[in-house]
Amino acid sequence: MPFARTARAWLEVTRLSNLPTVLTNVLAGAGLTLAVDTPVPWLPVGTAMLSAGLLYIAGMALNDAADVARDAESRPERPI
Known about the structure:
Helix content is 75%, strand content 0%. The chain contains 4 helices and no strands. Helix 2 runs antiparallel to helix 3.
């Protein structure tokens, strides 16, 4: 099952399980900026959510790539 192992490695490296916190932070920020009777501008909010999510995922993967030597010693079970 190489696909399952590869998929699990990507899920661990990108820390995809933490992504909902990033997305809800964008929603909370959008909610704080709106007046009570103002409709939600879904296109900009959705774009901000997508952008924040992709930046988060890329940052997690790049962080692991930058710390590969340290992780090899202290956390050898990490997939990178």
